[in-house]
Amino acid sequence: MAVDVSEPTAPEGEDGLEAFALEAARRQAEARGDDDDGVDEAAQSGFIARALAESRRMRGEASLSHQKRAELAASIAARHGEHSRQVMADAMAEHAAEALPDAESAEATGQGEATGEVPL
Predict the structure, then answer these.
(1) What is the tens place of the pLDDT at every residue in 70-108?
(2) What residues contact residue 85 under an 8 Å CB cut-off, 6+ apart?
(3) Those residues with Cβ within 8 angstroms of residue 66's Cβ, 6 or more apart along the chain or in another chain
(4) How high is the pLDDT of residue 63?
């Protein structure tokens, strides 16, 4: 039995994202051979809508956190000079290397990037 592994294209907008998620769930169910008869589409749609709302909330929180970190870094640089950015980046990298597993440490410190700025 051949399975269609092509991904549905995501329509624009929030409603489009919900339609995309529902279509992807339907395709996965078909690939597994699940019956559509036992699926309550309203419940599935509600679940996906709640997941999308939580995803939007988390993206908003992450955006605020990045903005706050950027403002703090700019404030530190204004008070202590531009070299303080590199001092903070070095201190954060040292702490991450001690506190995080290797993969997380490399990700948290932006290893491989030689920007000299505090990672956001």
Answers:
(1) 998 899 889 999 888 888 889 989 998 898 887 665 565
(2) 73, 76, 77, 116, 117, 118
(3) 120
(4) 95
Site of tokens 């309203």: 42
Q: d(Cα 58, Cα 14) in Å, to the nearest integer?
A: 15
Q: Residue 31: name the closest of 1, 71, 55 by CA.
A: 1
DSSP state of 12: S
Dihedral sign for Cα 49, 14, 65, 106, please.
positive
Contact 120, 91 (CB under 8 A): no
DSSP calls for 92-120: HHHHHHHHS-HHHHHHHHTTT----S---
d(CA 23, CA 36): 12
Residue 66 to residues 43, 72, 80, 110, Cα–Cα distance (Å): 34, 10, 21, 14
